[in-house]
Amino acid sequence: MAAGLALIAFGLGVLSFRLGFLHQPLSQYADQISFIALCYMVFAVGVTIGTQRDVWGKVLKERWRLILLPIGTLLSSALAATVVGEITGLSSPVSAAIGSACGWYSLSGVAVAKIWGAEAGLLAFTVNFLRELAAFGLVPLIAKHCRFAAIALCGATAADTTLPVIAKSTNPESALIGLISGGLITASVPFVIAFLSSLSS
To answer: How many Å apart are CA 193 and CA 111, to the nearest integer?
Structure first.
């Protein structure tokens, strides 16, 4: 339900601007508005986690999964992107870098463009943006069967934009795991892209 409303809100935002319902000066504040909304949503998730006194104990019981989840997400994303890159004729380092961004479209678009050119940067931005958008719709469905798969789909965004969806679709424990996994992936992405760029030089 929440994911569907998020997708509807996104579509309405695009249509409102395209049809001229939003004036240019108002659209200039879109980044600030979205940042405030994101902060509120993450704050609300924090409150939910804070009300669960035993949540940290449950999360720490996961032990090795807390490390394997972000590592597996990074590796599987890079590998899947490399396979697709081979099919479409994209070089392995470029496609692996695009996949290893794990949904962090703002960084991947700029970083990939600086290293491999504007076309690759645009592709990185688009692919990772679509991954985040897909997560909003698919997480509620996937979480019914496997919460770790749902968190993995979110990738780096599990630490921010898709965290509320994880919390809504699972439980406070899984939301905290998502926050940890997303945070570790976010910290790793710049180093992974830098490493892949060294392979192509």
So the answer is: 8
Of 134, 132, 131, 123, residue with least CA distance to 95: 123
For the stretch 97-125, pLDDT in tens is 999 999 988 888 889 998 899 899 999 99
Alpha-carbon gap, residue 190 to 125, rounded angstroms: 15
Using CA atoms, how far residue 97 sits from 77, 135, 177, in Å, is: 9, 20, 24
Q: Using H for helix, E for strand and C for coil, what is the string for the chain?
A: CHHHHHHHHHHHHHHHHHCCCCCHHHHCCHHHHHHHHHHHHHHHHHHHHHCCCCHHHHHHCCCHHHHHHHHHHHHHHHHHHHHHHHHHCCCHHHHHHHHHCCCCHHHHHHHHHHHHCHHHHHHHHHHHHHHHHHHHHHHHHHCCCCHHHHHHHHHHHHHCCCHHHHHHHCCHHHHHHHHHHHHHHHHHHHHHHHHHHHHHC
Q: How do residues 158-176 score in pLDDT, each as one tens digit?
A: 988 888 899 888 888 888 8
Q: What is the pTM of this model?
A: 0.76
